[in-house]
Amino acid sequence: KQWYQRRVAITAGDVATFGESALELVTSYDPDKMCQSAVDLGVHLEDVQKRYNDLKLQLDDLECELTNQEGIAQKLAEIAKSFDKVQEYTDNMPKPRLQEAELVQFMADIDEELGDVFILEEKMRVLENEYPNSASDPAVRAQLEKIKETKKTLEDKKDDLRDKSDMLDALSEDMADINNAIKSISPQKNTVPLTDLKSVEDNERYQEDLEPKISSLEDKLEKLEEVHARISKDCNPADVKKLQAKIDDLKKKCKDKEEKKNEKIEELKKTKDHLHKFDDASQKLSTWLENQINELKNQEPPSTSSNMLKEQLDQHNQFTD
């Protein structure tokens, strides 16, 4: 604007100078040579008139451009004032809560700000249409760039919040599924009563089959922590801790099931060992009884001879001992 004001002043001075030179030209001619002087004067006056007209056109153009610059500056100031409010919100956006309703409300607030950005973009288009030369104005270009950057920041934040909302919803469902799966695991339960070696082995197989289920849940919990780390970025620290506490609780429950399963397996192994020992002892007892029965069956009937009877009695005493 100042440059155009200086140009207007300089050009107006040039116009005034040409008027003075024309007057000086008229008063300088010799009356005795008026005919020739008149011709010369006419030529000079035509030249002065032409140069005056050119300068007058330049002056009009400069004054018009100056008016345009003032109009651009005024409209740009109005746009900048509205933009400052959007910029202040963008620079001071709060950390989102890890709650579905809070995230949805946050996205709605950003939509309102984006609506204001769209209005600013429309005002800039109107400005460029009204003042075609404004596209080359550094201040206009700078304002357009600021609006563009702020719009991108708001849109990126909204996309991030949408991702957080989707991941939080999926995370909540996965946590509920994992919790139900953990509850369904009963490592202390006997699938069949412990009545013999086969029933113990059946229960052992049941406990061993729990291992892949528990491992699968542990893998899912690891993935949950990865998702938690992603959605927790730039979020309210208190909510981040609460969600982490819930995941830690699930991990503890899963670990407890693992420990109880291992305890049950050890208990079944001991029971199995006892049953093996019992079976061995029973087998030995059965063999001994069978031998004794056979020996009793094969004993000679009591003899009528006193000597022989005494010998038989000694043998029987040895057998019973």
Portion of residues within helices: over 70%
Q: In percent, how much strand structure appears in the residues?
A: under 5%
H-E string = HHHHHHH
- Major sheet description: none
Written description of the protein model:
- The protein is mostly helical and 321 residues long.
- The protein is built from seven helices and no strands.
- The longest helix has 61 residues.
- The radius of gyration is 53 Å and the shape is rod-shaped.
- It starts with a helix and ends with a helix.
Quick overview of this protein structure:
By secondary structure, the chain is mainly alpha-helical.
List keywords for this structure.
321 residues, mainly alpha, 7 helices, 85% helix, rod-shaped
What order do the helices and strands come in, and which of them pair?
Blueprint: H1 2-27, H2 34-91, H3 100-130, H4 138-184, H5 197-231, H6 237-297, H7 306-320
Helix pairs in contact: 1-2, 2-3, 2-4, 3-4, 4-5, 4-6, 5-6
